[in-house]
Amino acid sequence: MNLHALKIFHTISEKGGVTRAAEELRISQPAVTAQVRNLEKELGIQLLAPKGRGILVTDAGQMLASHAKRLFALERELDEAVREYKAGFSGILRIVATYLPANLLLPEWLALYKQEHPSVEVVLNTANSREAVEGLLQYDAEVAVYGGGWEEQPGIEWEQLLEDELWFIVPRNHPYGGKEITLAEMMKVPFILREEGSSTRERLFSLCRALNVSPPKVGLQFNGVNEMVRAVIAGYGAIFISSLAVRDNVERGEVERVMVKGTSLLNPIAVCTRKQEALSPAAAAFLSLVREQAKGWARN
């Protein structure tokens, strides 16, 4: 079926005549009439009949006009859906994030994002560093928000947003609290560590190797940052953690920081995407937002 001719006939039906349809479509009346005649020949039914000085839409024409109305309403919906998608206001945004940004940064960032993009479906999965990279490479996510040390990964683009310090933390009133000690002394305290594959855990063990110090004794192991902090608040062990995760607890006096000689380390927070792949509009809008938000965190 000639959809162009059908649209002309639909306009005639909506506007009530050939003259008004021609004005609406900005084409000549003879062109409008010719298109309808061709459509009648194609379908083998009469759509318009003379009525005095005007025209009448036949029963067959009314049937066709009813279906055409639904068809072109759907076309308008489709056009609007495409415009919304291209503007980043619809679609699905799949994110994988390591525990630190997932718990401390993304709740606020995604709340702001959803206020501007309420129709975008957001799917956030939390994983350790190794799993985050795998999720990106396996197309389980379009964007990874990554906290921790980074080594070049084939096929992945890495963009740093901000960075903070890594701190050694012990319970309140611990003998090492607020003091400066050596790494060897710090490693005598039982540690609460993340699971294998965690970037922070790997950096602690790498630090021990670099300074020729025995690695820490693993007292407890958790898969989440909050659990680690809560355990130290309860009075057990030590943790090596991003200052973003524990700064408030230190300021409230719930835990204490230990200064360890020769261990000033920075913890980058970054967004990762697949190299040489165009982002969906929803993901591009998200990255634009987090870049702006990260500037505020960096200033603080």
Automatic annotation (TrEMBL):
Pfam families in the cross-refs: HTH_1, LysR_substrate
Family annotation (InterPro entries): LysR_HTH_N (IPR000847), LysR_subst-bd (IPR005119), WH-like_DNA-bd_sf (IPR036388), WH_DNA-bd_sf (IPR036390)
Protein name according to UniProt: LysR substrate-binding domain-containing protein
Residue stretches making up the HTH lysR-type domain: 1-58
Keyword DNA-binding included in the entry's annotation: yes
Swiss-Prot/TrEMBL keywords: DNA-binding, Transcription, Transcription regulation
Taxonomic lineage: Bacteria, Bacillati, Bacillota, Bacilli, Bacillales
Presence of the UniProt keyword Transcription regulation in the record: yes
Similarity comment text for this entry: Belongs to the LysR transcriptional regulatory family.
